Batch of 3 targets.
Target 1
Amino acid sequence: MDPKENNIQKLWNDSPALVKLAVYGAGAFLLYRVGKKAYDQYQLKQRLKQYQQNQIQYQVNTGGGAGVTQTINLASVAGEVYDSFYNNDPFGWTEDETRAVNAVKTVPKAFIPQLEQTYLQLYGKDLRADLLGFLDSDEWNVISSLFN
């Protein structure tokens, strides 16, 4: 056995338990930080991929035969609706129905089925059921034509 290695082993064996605990704690913390950073990077890549998949473009007629291309992200709209119902306040006691209605109104009728699918994929919930459950009849009437 190398004498240097023996000295390190002796030093470790003679160290108080608190020092050993601090060394183990520091090592665990470093592993946690490295793992968290890698996981955060993975989540960011997944969100970017999801964002790109849910980006749609459509033409809006501005009159006189001219059209403007609009871009909307269905994942962002789905997130806006979900947050307005479930993450509106720290305690989850209130909903922001107006915010949800305004978010849904930004999506053209032709893309509502895709929005429903995106909402289901991201949150495991039925968009129409959530809207019907949280909105009163006047609020639902504002956007119900999009779902027919």
Note: The chain has two domains: 3-48, 55-147.
Target 2
Amino acid sequence: MNQSKTKFDLWMDWRPNRIKLKDKFDIRTDMLCDMIGMTEDDFQVKGKEIRFSNKSNMAFFRMNIDE
């Protein structure tokens, strides 16, 4: 993670790379991201929204969920 930016700064920067999860989505997103090889520097989860550091990570996550 870029040490000069806080997690909040990254959350705001990553807004274009977000997925809003449906209420019925019950898979732990952090576990899924870990299983597909992402680290905590690649994504952040808040409530029913997940944001990614880049579009590639977002696309890879989307391919691995059944929504």
Note: The beta strands are 18-20, 43-46, 49-52.
Target 3
Amino acid sequence: MSRSRSRSMIASTMSAMMALIFGIAAAGAGEANGASAASGASEANGAGAANGASAQTLPEDQVAAIRRGVQATLDAYREHAAAGRWEELMRLYADEPRFRWVASGIVEARSVDQIRKHLAALPPGTRVENTYQDTEITPLAPGVAMVMTQFQTRLVDPQGGGFAFGGALTMTLIERPDGWKILNGHASSAVRRQGSSVRGTSSP
């Protein structure tokens, strides 16, 4: 495959993949707040009602266990993305009807299978390197947590090219028998508003 075609394929997948594989990877340090979406909020509300618990009333040992579980998923995500192990990475998503991924205000994926197809279009050998700042993990209720982080991502193609970008990322994770899974999220990159010298970000 030519270098130009390789780069074209990568560019064509960037919009839908913006942080699906790039921005989520392992929140290297942290704990959290805010995330996209009705489905995550619905899960959190339902769990809180069913268990009579909220983020403020969870026992400290349960809060610590939730954070460890979520961090383990984020760490695994980073490792799989950096190695280009896409199928292993796919297992870290919640393959459920409520799954959504939003990038800069646009719903880019409504199923895990959509993400899998985007990954399949990347040239063999493509890998993703991530760095994170100010990462937070906030347990909301038993089995529900939110993550928020600033991220910088570098996509490396097999011929030595690629590109980098960064921004803000929020996610909802839920606990399942085989670990914590990403149910939904929203990523946005900094943009300069027309007619203004103030930098902002796309709507969260």
Note: The helical segments are 3-17, 38-51, 60-83, 86-90, 112-120.
